[in-house]
Protein backbone atom coordinates (compact mmCIF):
# COMPACT_ATOMS: atom_id res chain seq x y z
CA UNK A 1 0.00 0.00 0.00
CA UNK A 2 1.18 3.52 -0.82
CA UNK A 3 1.24 6.28 1.78
CA UNK A 4 1.97 10.01 1.67
CA UNK A 5 4.06 11.67 4.37
CA UNK A 6 3.48 15.40 4.85
CA UNK A 7 6.88 16.80 5.82
CA UNK A 8 7.85 20.17 7.26
CA UNK A 9 9.87 22.30 4.86
CA UNK A 10 12.83 22.81 7.21
CA UNK A 11 16.08 20.87 7.58
CA UNK A 12 15.38 19.32 4.19
CA UNK A 13 18.55 17.23 4.03
CA UNK A 14 17.65 15.55 7.34
CA UNK A 15 14.16 14.37 6.36
CA UNK A 16 14.93 11.31 4.25
CA UNK A 17 17.61 10.15 6.71
CA UNK A 18 15.07 10.36 9.53
CA UNK A 19 12.42 8.43 7.58
CA UNK A 20 14.87 5.64 6.76
CA UNK A 21 16.16 5.53 10.35
CA UNK A 22 12.62 5.32 11.76
CA UNK A 23 11.82 2.47 9.37
CA UNK A 24 14.91 0.61 10.59
CA UNK A 25 14.07 1.31 14.24
CA UNK A 26 10.56 -0.10 13.73
CA UNK A 27 11.91 -2.99 11.62
CA UNK A 28 9.76 -2.04 8.63
CA UNK A 29 10.27 -2.81 4.97
CA UNK A 30 9.95 0.52 3.15
CA UNK A 31 10.24 1.62 -0.46
CA UNK A 32 10.72 5.34 -1.14
CA UNK A 33 8.62 5.98 -4.26
CA UNK A 34 9.03 9.76 -4.35
CA UNK A 35 11.19 12.21 -2.44
CA UNK A 36 12.63 15.62 -3.29
CA UNK A 37 14.24 18.17 -0.97
CA UNK A 38 12.17 20.92 -2.60
CA UNK A 39 8.86 19.14 -1.96
CA UNK A 40 7.04 18.72 1.38
CA UNK A 41 5.62 15.37 0.24
CA UNK A 42 7.17 11.93 0.35
CA UNK A 43 5.43 8.85 -1.05
CA UNK A 44 6.39 5.51 0.46
CA UNK A 45 5.23 1.91 0.16
CA UNK A 46 4.59 0.00 3.37
CA UNK A 47 2.93 -3.28 4.30
CA UNK A 48 -0.19 -1.88 6.00
CA UNK A 49 -1.71 0.91 8.11
CA UNK A 50 -0.08 -0.38 11.30
CA UNK A 51 3.34 -0.02 9.67
CA UNK A 52 2.48 3.52 8.53
CA UNK A 53 1.45 4.55 12.04
CA UNK A 54 4.57 2.98 13.52
CA UNK A 55 6.78 4.84 11.04
CA UNK A 56 5.42 8.32 11.74
CA UNK A 57 4.88 7.92 15.49
CA UNK A 58 8.18 9.50 16.62
CA UNK A 59 9.00 11.57 13.54
CA UNK A 60 10.12 15.15 14.20
CA UNK A 61 10.15 16.32 10.57
CA UNK A 62 6.92 14.58 9.53
CA UNK A 63 3.61 16.28 10.27
CA UNK A 64 1.52 13.23 9.47
CA UNK A 65 1.01 10.21 7.24
CA UNK A 66 -1.92 9.57 4.90
CA UNK A 67 -3.24 6.61 2.97
CA UNK A 68 -2.71 7.70 -0.62
CA UNK A 69 -5.98 7.63 -2.58
CA UNK A 70 -4.77 9.45 -5.68
CA UNK A 71 -1.90 11.43 -7.13
CA UNK A 72 -1.17 13.25 -10.37
CA UNK A 73 0.11 16.40 -12.01
CA UNK A 74 -3.41 17.83 -12.44
CA UNK A 75 -6.90 17.41 -11.03
CA UNK A 76 -7.96 15.42 -14.07
CA UNK A 77 -5.10 13.00 -13.45
CA UNK A 78 -5.91 12.76 -9.75
CA UNK A 79 -9.59 11.98 -10.38
CA UNK A 80 -8.60 9.29 -12.84
CA UNK A 81 -6.10 7.85 -10.36
CA UNK A 82 -8.62 7.87 -7.48
CA UNK A 83 -11.16 5.98 -9.58
CA UNK A 84 -8.62 3.39 -10.72
CA UNK A 85 -6.66 2.86 -7.50
CA UNK A 86 -7.02 -0.11 -5.18
CA UNK A 87 -8.58 2.22 -2.57
CA UNK A 88 -11.79 2.21 -4.64
CA UNK A 89 -12.85 -0.87 -2.70
CA UNK A 90 -12.64 1.23 0.51
CA UNK A 91 -15.21 3.84 -0.54
CA UNK A 92 -18.15 1.83 0.78
CA UNK A 93 -16.33 1.22 4.07
CA UNK A 94 -16.55 4.94 4.90
CA UNK A 95 -19.93 5.63 3.26
CA UNK A 96 -21.68 6.24 6.59
CA UNK A 97 -18.71 7.57 8.61
CA UNK A 98 -18.57 11.18 9.73
CA UNK A 99 -15.88 12.98 7.79
CA UNK A 100 -14.10 16.22 7.00
CA UNK A 101 -12.03 17.47 4.08
CA UNK A 102 -8.91 19.56 4.67
CA UNK A 103 -7.01 21.56 2.07
CA UNK A 104 -3.22 21.97 2.03
CA UNK A 105 -1.70 24.13 -0.71
CA UNK A 106 2.09 24.43 -0.76
CA UNK A 107 3.51 27.69 -2.22
CA UNK A 108 0.08 29.04 -3.12
CA UNK A 109 -3.23 30.05 -1.59
CA UNK A 110 -6.82 29.18 -2.45
CA UNK A 111 -9.89 31.12 -1.44
CA UNK A 112 -12.74 29.42 0.45
CA UNK A 113 -14.91 29.24 -2.67
CA UNK A 114 -12.12 27.60 -4.69
CA UNK A 115 -11.45 25.08 -1.94
CA UNK A 116 -15.14 24.20 -1.67
CA UNK A 117 -15.41 23.73 -5.41
CA UNK A 118 -12.41 21.41 -5.48
CA UNK A 119 -13.68 19.37 -2.53
CA UNK A 120 -17.11 19.06 -4.18
CA UNK A 121 -15.44 17.54 -7.24
CA UNK A 122 -14.87 14.39 -5.17
CA UNK A 123 -18.59 13.78 -4.50
CA UNK A 124 -18.42 10.59 -6.57
CA UNK A 125 -16.76 8.96 -3.53
CA UNK A 126 -20.31 8.62 -2.19
CA UNK A 127 -19.76 9.62 1.42
CA UNK A 128 -23.16 9.94 3.09
CA UNK A 129 -22.09 10.43 6.69
CA UNK A 130 -22.27 13.63 8.69
CA UNK A 131 -19.77 16.38 7.98
CA UNK A 132 -18.04 17.19 11.28
CA UNK A 133 -15.37 19.86 11.48
CA UNK A 134 -14.36 18.70 14.97
CA UNK A 135 -13.69 15.09 15.80
CA UNK A 136 -14.83 13.30 12.62
CA UNK A 137 -14.24 9.59 12.17
CA UNK A 138 -12.34 10.15 8.92
CA UNK A 139 -10.27 13.09 7.67
CA UNK A 140 -9.41 13.44 3.99
CA UNK A 141 -7.00 16.02 2.66
CA UNK A 142 -6.39 17.52 -0.77
CA UNK A 143 -2.73 18.46 -1.23
CA UNK A 144 -1.45 20.86 -3.86
CA UNK A 145 2.13 21.62 -4.78
CA UNK A 146 2.91 24.70 -6.86
CA UNK A 147 6.11 25.50 -8.73
CA UNK A 148 7.20 29.10 -9.11
CA UNK A 149 7.47 30.41 -12.64
CA UNK A 150 9.99 32.97 -11.38
CA UNK A 151 11.97 33.27 -8.17
CA UNK A 152 10.16 35.33 -5.58
CA UNK A 153 7.63 35.22 -2.77
CA UNK A 154 4.67 32.85 -2.85
CA UNK A 155 2.35 33.01 -4.68
CA UNK A 156 4.13 34.54 -7.66
CA UNK A 157 2.40 35.48 -10.91
CA UNK A 158 2.41 32.57 -13.31
CA UNK A 159 2.87 29.86 -10.64
CA UNK A 160 2.28 26.38 -12.02
CA UNK A 161 0.37 23.57 -10.34
CA UNK A 162 2.88 20.70 -10.38
CA UNK A 163 1.27 18.00 -8.23
CA UNK A 164 -2.03 17.09 -6.56
CA UNK A 165 -2.64 14.35 -4.01
CA UNK A 166 -5.67 13.00 -2.12
CA UNK A 167 -5.07 11.15 1.12
CA UNK A 168 -6.88 9.75 4.16
CA UNK A 169 -5.30 10.79 7.45
CA UNK A 170 -3.85 8.00 9.59
CA UNK A 171 -1.54 9.43 12.25
CA UNK A 172 0.46 12.49 13.26
CA UNK A 173 4.18 12.83 13.91
CA UNK A 174 5.81 14.14 17.09
CA UNK A 175 6.38 17.78 16.18
CA UNK A 176 4.95 18.78 19.57
CA UNK A 177 8.14 17.48 21.20
CA UNK A 178 10.05 20.45 19.76
CA UNK A 179 8.01 22.78 21.96
CA UNK A 180 8.02 20.42 24.93
CA UNK A 181 11.84 20.36 25.02
CA UNK A 182 12.31 23.99 23.97
CA UNK A 183 15.55 25.41 25.38
CA UNK A 184 13.69 28.56 26.44
CA UNK A 185 11.82 26.47 29.00
CA UNK A 186 14.80 24.42 30.17
CA UNK A 187 16.35 25.12 33.55
CA UNK A 188 20.01 24.69 32.65
CA UNK A 189 21.51 25.65 29.28
CA UNK A 190 24.64 27.24 27.85
CA UNK A 191 25.56 29.07 24.66
CA UNK A 192 26.47 25.77 22.98
CA UNK A 193 23.33 23.79 23.92
CA UNK A 194 21.89 22.06 20.84
CA UNK A 195 18.33 23.18 20.07
CA UNK A 196 15.60 20.67 20.85
CA UNK A 197 14.54 20.01 17.25
CA UNK A 198 17.99 19.02 16.00
CA UNK A 199 18.74 17.06 19.17
CA UNK A 200 15.57 14.99 18.71
CA UNK A 201 16.30 14.46 15.00
CA UNK A 202 19.83 13.33 15.87
CA UNK A 203 18.43 10.85 18.42
CA UNK A 204 16.07 9.46 15.77
CA UNK A 205 18.78 9.05 13.14
CA UNK A 206 21.05 7.42 15.76
CA UNK A 207 18.25 4.89 16.52
CA UNK A 208 17.91 5.77 20.22
CA UNK A 209 15.39 3.52 21.93
CA UNK A 210 14.55 1.33 24.95
CA UNK A 211 17.09 -1.18 26.24
CA UNK A 212 19.96 0.78 24.69
CA UNK A 213 22.86 2.75 26.20
CA UNK A 214 23.86 6.05 24.58
CA UNK A 215 26.91 8.15 25.37
CA UNK A 216 27.82 11.78 24.64
CA UNK A 217 31.55 12.48 25.14
CA UNK A 218 30.95 16.25 24.82
CA UNK A 219 27.82 16.32 26.94
CA UNK A 220 27.67 20.02 27.91
CA UNK A 221 24.22 20.66 29.39
CA UNK A 222 22.83 17.35 28.16
CA UNK A 223 20.76 18.19 25.07
CA UNK A 224 21.55 14.93 23.24
CA UNK A 225 21.18 12.58 26.23
CA UNK A 226 17.81 14.17 27.06
CA UNK A 227 16.59 13.61 23.49
CA UNK A 228 17.80 9.99 23.54
CA UNK A 229 16.24 9.44 26.96
CA UNK A 230 12.88 10.64 25.68
CA UNK A 231 12.90 7.71 23.25
CA UNK A 232 13.76 5.31 26.07
CA UNK A 233 17.57 5.01 25.96
CA UNK A 234 19.70 4.97 29.10
CA UNK A 235 22.28 7.75 28.79
CA UNK A 236 25.58 8.95 30.19
CA UNK A 237 27.97 11.74 29.26
CA UNK A 238 31.31 13.35 29.94
CA UNK A 239 32.92 16.70 29.35
CA UNK A 240 36.43 18.07 29.61
CA UNK A 241 35.09 20.76 31.96
CA UNK A 242 33.54 19.13 35.00
CA UNK A 243 31.98 22.42 36.07
CA UNK A 244 29.50 22.35 33.20
CA UNK A 245 28.37 18.83 34.14
CA UNK A 246 28.02 19.72 37.82
CA UNK A 247 26.29 23.01 37.01
CA UNK A 248 26.21 26.24 38.93
CA UNK A 249 24.74 24.64 42.02
CA UNK A 250 24.12 20.97 42.67
CA UNK A 251 21.87 21.86 45.59
CA UNK A 252 19.16 23.63 43.58
CA UNK A 253 19.24 21.28 40.57
CA UNK A 254 20.75 23.73 38.08
CA UNK A 255 22.79 21.05 36.35
CA UNK A 256 22.45 18.19 33.88
CA UNK A 257 20.64 15.98 36.38
CA UNK A 258 18.24 18.85 37.06
CA UNK A 259 17.37 18.97 33.33
CA UNK A 260 16.51 15.27 33.40
CA UNK A 261 14.41 15.78 36.53
CA UNK A 262 12.55 18.62 34.82
CA UNK A 263 11.25 16.15 32.20
CA UNK A 264 10.84 13.17 34.53
CA UNK A 265 13.69 11.30 32.84
CA UNK A 266 16.16 11.07 35.73
CA UNK A 267 15.96 7.26 35.82
CA UNK A 268 17.56 7.23 32.33
CA UNK A 269 20.52 9.43 33.29
CA UNK A 270 23.23 7.03 34.45
CA UNK A 271 25.85 9.67 35.30
CA UNK A 272 28.20 12.37 34.05
CA UNK A 273 31.94 12.61 34.59
CA UNK A 274 35.00 14.68 33.67
CA UNK A 275 37.04 13.25 30.80
CA UNK A 276 38.03 13.63 27.17
CA UNK A 277 38.57 10.97 24.54
CA UNK A 278 42.34 10.92 25.07
CA UNK A 279 41.92 10.52 28.85
CA UNK A 280 38.75 8.49 29.29
CA UNK A 281 37.81 5.90 31.92
CA UNK A 282 35.42 4.28 29.42
CA UNK A 283 36.68 0.79 28.62
CA UNK A 284 37.71 0.24 25.01
CA UNK A 285 39.61 -3.04 25.31
CA UNK A 286 36.81 -5.23 26.71
CA UNK A 287 33.68 -6.29 24.83
CA UNK A 288 31.90 -3.48 23.01
CA UNK A 289 28.87 -2.27 24.95
CA UNK A 290 27.58 1.11 23.69
CA UNK A 291 24.52 1.10 21.42
CA UNK A 292 25.01 4.66 20.27
CA UNK A 293 27.25 7.72 20.49
CA UNK A 294 25.83 11.16 19.77
CA UNK A 295 27.94 14.29 20.01
CA UNK A 296 28.56 17.83 18.83
CA UNK A 297 32.33 18.27 19.35
CA UNK A 298 33.77 21.75 19.92
CA UNK A 299 34.76 23.53 16.71
CA UNK A 300 37.58 25.47 18.33
CA UNK A 301 36.25 28.90 17.28
CA UNK A 302 35.73 30.59 20.64
CA UNK A 303 39.01 29.15 21.84
CA UNK A 304 41.45 26.58 20.52
CA UNK A 305 40.61 22.91 20.97
CA UNK A 306 42.11 21.39 24.10
CA UNK A 307 42.54 18.07 25.86
CA UNK A 308 43.51 17.25 29.42
CA UNK A 309 47.23 17.60 30.04
CA UNK A 310 49.98 20.20 30.26
CA UNK A 311 51.54 22.14 27.39
CA UNK A 312 54.95 21.36 28.83
CA UNK A 313 54.88 17.97 30.57
CA UNK A 314 58.18 18.75 32.34
CA UNK A 315 56.67 21.67 34.27
CA UNK A 316 54.14 21.65 37.09
CA UNK A 317 54.71 18.02 38.05
CA UNK A 318 54.97 18.80 41.75
CA UNK A 319 51.83 18.20 43.79
CA UNK A 320 50.03 21.30 45.11
CA UNK A 321 48.25 21.20 48.47
CA UNK A 322 45.44 23.55 49.54
CA UNK A 323 44.12 23.55 53.12
CA UNK A 324 45.75 20.22 53.80
CA UNK A 325 44.39 18.47 50.69
CA UNK A 326 45.87 17.94 47.22
CA UNK A 327 44.49 20.58 44.85
CA UNK A 328 43.34 17.98 42.30
CA UNK A 329 41.00 16.51 44.93
CA UNK A 330 39.33 19.86 45.64
CA UNK A 331 35.69 20.11 44.47
CA UNK A 332 36.35 23.09 42.20
CA UNK A 333 39.67 21.94 40.75
CA UNK A 334 40.13 22.80 37.07
CA UNK A 335 42.58 20.37 35.44
CA UNK A 336 45.25 21.77 33.09
CA UNK A 337 44.69 21.53 29.35
CA UNK A 338 46.85 21.53 26.23
CA UNK A 339 46.15 22.31 22.53
CA UNK A 340 44.55 19.63 20.40
CA UNK A 341 44.32 19.07 16.66
CA UNK A 342 40.91 19.18 14.99
CA UNK A 343 41.85 16.27 12.73
CA UNK A 344 43.11 14.23 15.67
CA UNK A 345 39.82 14.83 17.48
CA UNK A 346 37.81 13.44 14.56
CA UNK A 347 40.11 10.43 14.33
CA UNK A 348 39.80 9.82 18.07
CA UNK A 349 35.99 9.97 17.92
CA UNK A 350 35.78 7.43 15.10
CA UNK A 351 38.36 5.15 16.70
CA UNK A 352 36.58 5.35 20.04
CA UNK A 353 33.26 4.50 18.35
CA UNK A 354 34.81 1.54 16.54
CA UNK A 355 36.16 0.24 19.87
CA UNK A 356 32.98 0.65 21.94
CA UNK A 357 29.90 0.38 19.69
CA UNK A 358 28.08 -2.93 19.43
CA UNK A 359 27.46 -4.42 15.99
CA UNK A 360 25.16 -2.08 14.02
CA UNK A 361 25.46 0.57 16.75
CA UNK A 362 25.45 4.13 15.47
CA UNK A 363 27.68 7.18 15.80
CA UNK A 364 26.03 10.52 15.00
CA UNK A 365 28.66 13.24 14.86
CA UNK A 366 28.25 16.94 14.05
CA UNK A 367 31.12 18.45 12.04
CA UNK A 368 31.64 21.99 10.68
CA UNK A 369 32.34 22.67 7.03
CA UNK A 370 32.11 25.41 4.46
CA UNK A 371 28.67 26.03 2.94
CA UNK A 372 28.88 24.40 -0.49
CA UNK A 373 25.65 26.05 -1.63
CA UNK A 374 26.92 29.55 -0.87
CA UNK A 375 30.15 28.66 -2.64
CA UNK A 376 28.18 27.72 -5.73
CA UNK A 377 26.17 30.95 -5.67
CA UNK A 378 29.34 33.01 -5.33
CA UNK A 379 31.04 31.13 -8.14
CA UNK A 380 28.28 31.97 -10.61
CA UNK A 381 28.87 35.69 -10.13
CA UNK A 382 32.60 35.69 -10.46
CA UNK A 383 33.55 33.35 -13.33
CA UNK A 384 34.60 30.64 -10.86
CA UNK A 385 33.24 27.12 -11.32
CA UNK A 386 31.39 25.41 -8.50
CA UNK A 387 33.70 22.42 -8.80
CA UNK A 388 36.68 24.65 -7.97
CA UNK A 389 34.95 25.99 -4.86
CA UNK A 390 33.80 22.53 -3.77
CA UNK A 391 37.26 21.11 -4.37
CA UNK A 392 38.83 23.88 -2.30
CA UNK A 393 36.37 23.25 0.54
CA UNK A 394 36.82 19.49 0.45
CA UNK A 395 40.56 19.85 1.04
CA UNK A 396 39.83 21.11 4.53
CA UNK A 397 36.53 19.44 5.26
CA UNK A 398 36.35 15.99 3.67
CA UNK A 399 34.30 13.39 5.50
CA UNK A 400 36.44 11.30 7.88
CA UNK A 401 36.31 7.52 7.62
CA UNK A 402 37.18 4.37 9.53
CA UNK A 403 37.32 0.82 8.16
CA UNK A 404 35.08 -0.49 10.97
CA UNK A 405 32.41 2.18 10.40
CA UNK A 406 30.03 2.53 7.46
CA UNK A 407 28.78 6.01 6.58
CA UNK A 408 24.96 5.87 6.65
CA UNK A 409 23.90 9.45 6.00
CA UNK A 410 25.20 13.01 5.63
CA UNK A 411 22.84 15.85 6.58
CA UNK A 412 23.73 19.53 6.23
CA UNK A 413 22.55 22.55 8.20
CA UNK A 414 23.61 25.67 6.24
CA UNK A 415 24.41 28.99 7.86
CA UNK A 416 25.62 32.19 6.20
CA UNK A 417 29.09 31.30 4.90
CA UNK A 418 29.58 27.99 6.63
CA UNK A 419 27.58 24.92 7.51
CA UNK A 420 27.71 21.89 9.72
CA UNK A 421 27.11 18.28 8.81
CA UNK A 422 25.49 15.54 10.81
CA UNK A 423 27.51 12.44 9.92
CA UNK A 424 26.00 9.11 10.92
CA UNK A 425 27.97 5.88 10.89
CA UNK A 426 27.04 2.24 11.51
CA UNK A 427 29.42 -0.09 13.34
CA UNK A 428 30.14 -2.98 11.00
CA UNK A 429 29.75 -6.43 12.56
CA UNK A 430 32.84 -8.20 13.87
CA UNK A 431 36.35 -7.04 14.74
CA UNK A 432 38.16 -7.92 11.53
CA UNK A 433 38.48 -4.32 10.33
CA UNK A 434 39.58 -3.08 13.76
CA UNK A 435 42.19 -5.83 14.05
CA UNK A 436 43.56 -4.89 10.65
CA UNK A 437 44.02 -1.27 11.71
CA UNK A 438 45.65 -2.29 14.99
CA UNK A 439 48.09 -4.54 13.14
CA UNK A 440 49.09 -1.68 10.83
CA UNK A 441 49.43 0.85 13.64
CA UNK A 442 51.49 1.05 16.80
CA UNK A 443 51.00 -2.06 18.91
CA UNK A 444 51.22 0.06 22.07
CA UNK A 445 48.29 2.31 21.12
CA UNK A 446 45.16 1.51 23.13
CA UNK A 447 42.98 2.94 20.36
CA UNK A 448 44.30 2.84 16.79
CA UNK A 449 44.30 6.20 15.06
CA UNK A 450 42.97 6.18 11.51
CA UNK A 451 43.98 8.98 9.13
CA UNK A 452 40.87 10.97 8.28
CA UNK A 453 42.26 12.45 5.08
CA UNK A 454 41.27 15.99 6.00
CA UNK A 455 44.61 17.42 7.13
CA UNK A 456 45.72 20.21 4.85
CA UNK A 457 49.33 20.88 3.85
CA UNK A 458 49.37 23.90 6.14
CA UNK A 459 48.09 21.90 9.08
CA UNK A 460 50.41 19.03 8.30
CA UNK A 461 53.41 21.37 8.34
CA UNK A 462 52.70 22.08 11.98
CA UNK A 463 52.81 18.41 12.92
CA UNK A 464 55.64 17.11 15.09
CA UNK A 465 58.16 14.71 13.68
CA UNK A 466 56.37 11.66 15.08
CA UNK A 467 53.27 12.51 13.01
CA UNK A 468 50.87 12.58 15.94
CA UNK A 469 48.95 15.89 15.90
CA UNK A 470 47.64 15.30 19.42
CA UNK A 471 51.20 15.67 20.73
CA UNK A 472 51.78 19.01 19.05
CA UNK A 473 51.73 21.33 22.04
CA UNK A 474 53.42 24.43 20.63
CA UNK A 475 51.52 24.93 17.36
CA UNK A 476 49.10 27.84 17.00
CA UNK A 477 45.38 27.02 17.29
CA UNK A 478 44.80 27.99 13.65
CA UNK A 479 47.48 25.56 12.52
CA UNK A 480 45.84 22.73 14.43
CA UNK A 481 42.33 23.55 13.24
CA UNK A 482 41.69 24.25 9.52
CA UNK A 483 38.04 25.18 10.18
CA UNK A 484 39.03 27.79 12.76
CA UNK A 485 41.52 29.26 10.29
CA UNK A 486 38.93 29.49 7.52
CA UNK A 487 36.31 30.82 9.95
CA UNK A 488 38.37 33.83 10.99
CA UNK A 489 39.43 34.44 7.40
CA UNK A 490 35.73 34.75 6.58
CA UNK A 491 35.97 31.76 4.22
CA UNK A 492 37.41 34.27 1.75
CA UNK A 493 38.78 33.11 -1.56
CA UNK A 494 41.39 34.92 -3.60
CA UNK A 495 40.54 38.60 -4.36
CA UNK A 496 38.49 39.17 -7.51
CA UNK A 497 40.02 40.90 -10.48
CA UNK A 498 38.41 44.01 -12.04
CA UNK A 499 37.00 41.89 -14.87
CA UNK A 500 35.44 39.47 -12.41
CA UNK A 501 33.95 42.32 -10.38
CA UNK A 502 32.52 43.97 -13.53
CA UNK A 503 30.98 40.68 -14.63
CA UNK A 504 29.45 40.21 -11.17
CA UNK A 505 27.85 43.69 -11.28
CA UNK A 506 26.50 43.03 -14.78
CA UNK A 507 25.03 39.70 -13.64
CA UNK A 508 23.33 41.33 -10.65
CA UNK A 509 21.62 43.89 -12.91
CA UNK A 510 20.05 41.09 -14.92
Quick gist of this model?
Helix content is 29%, strand content 24%. The protein has helices spanning 12-25, 49-56, 75-84, 112-120, 176-180, 196-205, 223-230, 242-246, 256-262, 342-356, 372-380, 386-397, 432-440, 457-461, 477-480, 482-488, 498-509; strands at residues 2-7, 31-34, 41-45, 62-72, 99-106, 138-147, 160-172, 213-216, 234-239, 269-274, 290-295, 306-308, 321-322, 325-326, 337-339, 357-370, 405-414, 418-427.
Structure description:
This protein is α/β, with parallel strands linked by helices and 510 residues long. It contains 17 helices and 18 strands. Strands 2-3-1-4-7-6-5 form a seven-stranded mixed beta sheet. A seven-stranded mixed beta sheet has the order 10-9-8-11-16-18-17. Strands 12-15 form a two-stranded antiparallel ribbon. Strand 8, helix 7 and strand 9 form a beta-alpha-beta unit. The longest helix is centred in the C-terminal third of the chain and has 15 residues, at 342-356. The two termini are 48 Å apart.
Question: What radius of gyration results from the CA coordinates?
Answer: 27 Å
Strand content: 15-25%
Number of helices: 17
- Estimate the helix proportion, in percent: 25-40%
Shape: elongated
**Helix/strand/pairing category:** alpha/beta
Biggest β-sheet: count, sense, barrel?
7 strands, mixed
Distance between the termini: 48 Å
Oligomeric description of these chains: single chain
**Poorly predicted sequence stretches spanning 5 or more consecutive residues:** 373-396, 442-474
- What does the average pLDDT come to? 81
Query: Order of strands across the widest beta sheet?
Result: 2-3-1-4-7-6-5
Number of strands: 18
